[in-house]
Design a protein that fits this description.
This protein is α/β, with parallel strands linked by helices. Helix content is about 45%, strand content about 10%. Helix 8 packs across helix 9.
Length: about 325
């Protein structure tokens, strides 16, 4: 029995020894595998850190130090990218706006201003039918150009196919020049007469579209239509770029706004100093009396070649020119 017990103990010690050896062998194998695996894991970690020896090393620090590259990076694709452009735009245009007040004469004037232009605005940018560039006074002209013993003859409300031709014949017989203030639609309907007036050396004047003697109480748009559209009709009828020199408001119904619109389109506002009142058809003697009572050198005589029967006007004109010739008068145009 004692032998059996020793034998069992010996077998137990042997089993423990064998098991310990196995455990140690497994531990040694696990440690060897772990040690072998460690360099493989460390290798990627080491390569993640930039090395000065690698080609990419110099480019990595250059990006954050470049101002050009830094600015768009945070804002790319965001609405804030438009913000830097605004200050640049304002800085570029601000000097130009500040320069205008110091050089008002360089500012072009619109061809049809939305509001009546300022006094003495230049006619740059006005339609081609307007007189050449320069300043047109807004005041109403009441005197003939030049000096000496001269008068300016003016005829309103034409052209008329009957009476305008007769007036032209009388003027030609006396070598007299005159200004014809025409209604726009009349000029458009009789371009042959307008051309004949210009060819004879007379001047053209705008007398509105509708001959509205209450024009000053109407809107700015209405007044622009009356003045500018008539100017265009007369100019087209005349052709060859002939000028329309003046604007005479129907009935002399001028206002500051009307004068400004006219002057802004190259037309001098035109008045008169002698009213023959021939439009009333008071008789030839009355027409002559009206003229003689107001006549003086440098005056502007108002008569009519349109708007009705002007037979009295034609007869009175023949006698008037005979008297003016005898008195030593010459014939000129209204001042500009």
């Amino acid at each position: 029995m004692a032998l059996t017990t020793r034998a069992n103990r010996t077998l137990g010690v042997l089993a423990v020894t064998i098991a310990g050896a196995s455990v140690m062998a497994c531990g040694t194998q696990h440690m060897s595998q772990t040690a072998a695996a460690a360099p493989a894991k460390a290798a990627p970690t080491a390569t993640a850190t930039p090395s000065p020896a690698t080609p990419s090393a110099p480019s990595a620090p250059s990006v954050p130090h470049s101002p050009a590259a830094k600015a768009p990076a945070p804002t790319a694709g965001t609405p804030r990218t438009a913000a830097p452009a605004k200050p640049t735009h304002h800085r570029a245009t601000a000097p130009a706006h500040r320069a205008h007040p110091s050089h008002p004469h360089t500012a072009p004037a619109p061809a049809r201003p939305a509001t009546p232009p300022a006094a003495h605005r230049t006619t740059a940018g006005t339609p081609a039918h307007a007189p050449g560039a320069g300043r047109v006074d807004q005041s109403i002209q009441h005197g003939a150009e030049g000096g000496g013993k001269s008068v300016a003859l003016t005829f309103d409300d034409g052209p008329d196919p009957t009476w305008t031709l007769k007036v032209l014949q009388v003027l030609a017989a006396h070598h007299a020049k005159a200004t014809f203030c025409e209604i726009g639609p009349n000029a458009a309907a009789h371009p042959d007469l307008v051309k004949r007036i210009s060819a004879a050396g007379h001047r053209l004047c705008d007398h509105s579209v509708h001959h509205d003697e209450a024009q000053s109480g109407k809107s700015a748009a209405y007044n622009r239509h009356e003045i500018v559209d008539a100017q265009q009709e007369i100019s087209r009828a005349a052709g060859h770029g002939d000028r329309v020199w003046y604007y005479r408001a129907p009935g002399g119904d001028f206002s500051p706004a009307i004068r400004a619109i006219a002057a802004g389109h190259g037309l001098r506002p035109l008045g008169w100093t002698v009213d023959s009142e021939d439009w009333r058809r008071p008789g030839v003697d009355s027409i002559l009396k009206n003229v003689n009572s107001e006549l003086k050198p440098g005056g502007i005589i108002l008569m009519h070649d349109g708007g009705g029967d002007r037979s009295q006007t034609v007869q009175a004109l023949e006698t008037l020119l005979d008297r003016l010739d005898a008195a030593g008068y010459t014939y000129t145009f209204p001042g500009r």
